[in-house]
Amino acid sequence: MKPSATGRNRIRRVVILVTVVLLALFFSLQGLLTIVIAPLAVPLAAGATWISKTIFWWRETGGLTPEALADLHQDRQELAIDRLEFERLKEENELLRQELNFIERSESGSVSAQVLAKSVSHSVSRFLIDVGARQGVQLGAAVVSGEGMFVGKVIELGEHSATVSALTDPSHSVAVSLLNKSRTIGVATGSVGDLLQIDFIPTDETVQENDLVVTSGLEPLIPSGLLVGVVNTVEQQTGSPFQQAIVEPLTDIRRLSLVLVLIPADIQP
Amino acid sequence: MIGYLLHGLAFLLLLALQVSFIHALPYPFDRIPLILVVTVYLYQYEDKTSCWWWLVCYGFVLDAISLSISPLQIVSYTLVTGVMLFFVTHVFTNRSFYGMAATALLCLVALTVSELSILGLSHLLGSEPFLWKPLLTTNLWAAFFSCVLLLFVFSPLRRGRLVLQRLFLDRV
After folding, report:
1. Whole-angstrom Cα distance, residue A90 to residue A92?
2. B16, closest residue in chain A (CA to CA)
3. N or C: which end of chain B has fewer CB within 10 A?
4. What is the pLDDT of residues A60-115, one digit of tens each?
5. Is residue A112 part of a domain?
6. CB contact, 8 Å: A195 with chain B?
7. In chain B, how many domains are there?
8. Looking at the domain assignment, is residue A236 inside a domain?
């Protein structure tokens, strides 16, 4: 038999535990936790992100040096952004030529946030950030990386913190549009692993590898044109009227320690 | 009172290490079940019986910050705590590596069964995806890392502490 505390002590402990739990609930546990663990969590999360970037570079390469891989990542992101901008300007130009007036794109504000905790695996991709309702963050708000790439959206909101479901989370879905000729729209959902999938694309839509995928703007707090990823593969079952696009996201939340949360211009604090 | 405060601080430190550091490492290293293994080690080997509530609190925190795939983690971790208390008190009463490893593994089995059941129920009742395969894989990695932690981390720590005690602490 293990030595155990006296019954009185045990009751006292249970009472203290229950009181702490009730107090935590009363003061919003997420906000309280954020305040308490933030001084420790921020450097720890940044440290682990650094380890992921520098020590585990070989996991993604197979012969490339970390510097070369970082350069390639940078080049790919810059090219994707350039192409996105090019496509947008081309489209805008065509529209302006057709009609001499155009609607201005609405501007969103943003609030910068630090990652406090992460849970990234094949079954879940979420992270906790240190801004919440007090800073103007709303449920469903878009979260982007420093370069403006779409990272995910807010699924839980506290006073001083929020939980973000990343693009690759299996329970995450976002309305997207492909930058192909027909501007195919669809819903990108996280699949098991680090990829996304867009299902139920009619076969008469021409979807090709390397087509860019951006947010469509059909969700209230997610503006259109945020870069999501590139089409990696297009699959079609024999006889099926639909095809499926596998999308490779351009951001990796393992490498993020700082993000931006977009907030509508009218509610900026 | 100071004891409770130290307990709370130790839990917060472990929590920060688990959710901020370990979970941010690349797969499969993000599956290291630090809190579970430390609790089993302290409860079974060091006789620190008051640290059982760390597991319950960890489940509660996971629910609060929604970082886990399976909902109701507090239920799963309360079950795990019950399993740990039962096996340490009635089955693995010796303080060997095998006893601790068996307790940790059985706790992970209980956690997996509970998470799968809750995930299956929420899949039946709602639209949550039932990702049983990745959950099993991640918990298998967690089982592997729990043995590694117990074998390669806690044993040298214990020896280091004994050496330190023999060299310095006993002479002070």
Report:
1. 5
2. A41
3. C
4. 555 667 777 777 888 787 788 878 788 888 887 777 776 554 444 445 688 889 88
5. yes
6. no
7. 1
8. yes
Buried b (16+ CB within 10 A) or exposed e, B102-134: bbbbbbbebbbebbbebbeebeeeeebbebeeb
The reply to whether A70 touches chain B by the CB within 8 Å rule is no
pLDDT average per 10 residues of sequence, chain B (172 residues): 78 88 85 90 84 87 79 88 91 84 93 90 79 84 89 77 69 53
The verdict on a CB contact (< 8 Å) between A48 and B22 is: yes
Which residue shows structure tokens 């209230």? A220
Domain membership flag for residue A14: no
Answer yes or no: are the C-beta atoms of B16 and A40 closer than 8 Å.
yes
User: CA of A165, closest CA in chain B: separation in Å?
Assistant: 9
CATH code for the domain in which residue A264 is found: 2.40.10.350
Chain B residue with the nearest C-alpha to that of A1: B89
pLDDT digits (tens, 9 = 90+) for A24-73: 665 566 677 777 777 888 888 888 888 877 776 556 555 667 777 777 88
Across the interface, do A161 and B65 touch by the CB < 8 Å criterion?
Answer: yes
Specify the number of domains making up chain A: 1
Query: Is the residue at B66 inside a domain?
Result: yes
| Inside any domain, residue A48 | yes
The complex's ipTM works out to 0.75
Q: With beta carbons under 8 A apart, name residues in chain A contacting B129.
A: 170-171
State whether residue A157 sits within 8 Å of chain B by CB: no
- Domain membership flag for residue B128: yes
